[in-house]
Write a structure and sequence with these properties.
360 residues, seven-stranded mixed β-sheet, 13 strands, 2 domains, six-stranded antiparallel β-sheet, Rossmann fold, Beta-Lactamase
Length: 360
Amino acid sequence: MAKIDAFFQLMHEQGASDLHLVSGQQPILRIRGDMERVKFNVLEDDDLKAMLYEIAPEHKVKQFEETGDIDFAYEIPGLARYRANFFQQKYGVGAVFREIPSTILTAQQLGLPPVIPKLASLPRGLVLVTGPTGSGKSTTLAAIIDEANRTRKDHIITVEDPIEFVHKSQSCVVNHREVGIHTKSFSAALRGALREDPDIILVGEMRDLETIRLAVEAASTGHLVFGTVHTTSAAKTVDRIIEVFPSSEQDQIRSTLADGIRAVISQVLFRRVDKKGRCAALEILIANAAVRNLIREAKTFQIPSMIQTGRKYGMQLLDDGIMELVNKGMISPDDAYLKCNDKQRFRPLLKSAPTDFTEV
């Protein structure tokens, strides 16, 4: 048993999502969104480095010493998997670990809208799950992939950095590939995937032009592609995909994206007030013919209006999702106000409306 495993055990018992170990500070847990210090000695750089190197693969240690930061996955059988990031900082080494539950929750258990698991049955196209870091994108994607794994008879390939949720082959054949170990890059893995007879491809992160280009092309040539993007709304996600390309290619990619896109899910996590835990508010864009036409004609600014009128397709604005959680008593009006888009709509719910200096 590695020395650091005791911290992971504590993390699991406390229900923490993240563990921060930084030279010159006490260990810190993120519990329900808040950072809480652990009553433990201040971590010395040499001691922390020895503790971290004990669990890191040898080639990752070498890479860390050359570059100053690395990502990899660490697993404690019977407890959980952890996404690890090591980094160098002013006072020495630092590390952050995100817990990835060994049990994959279904969309129903997560309380996701009924349209979300239906995305697993799409024959082809591009489905994007977006939101800031730590907003639960991986958990939502895992639920969709799990639904496909149980209900389809297909080949699923996941490309991640590092591998997070591990899906055991059920009705589908599932192959996990990790960037840096099984393949050089997301784009190299995507290029290879097209020759590996896939039906469903999960791209852990669409972060560069080549990866985005290959993902959009794969979706347009008969594959179902799931991916994540760091954006805050459905409309901004579409803009982000298009703006990555040189201006000379944007008309072409706008047309290709319009043909291939099927849905965009944008989510924000909230601390629950009715019980321990967190829950997600979702913005859902389903790409029907009208939405695809807006993308093709560069009228993405009209997408929020289209979502508002598309409830029968399962569409939902983020503020509507947030308001539903408030009405159910799951989140506080104060949290809702902080993370909503239309402040005026949520202001009457507050006992005392705060002054937002950005609106003055």
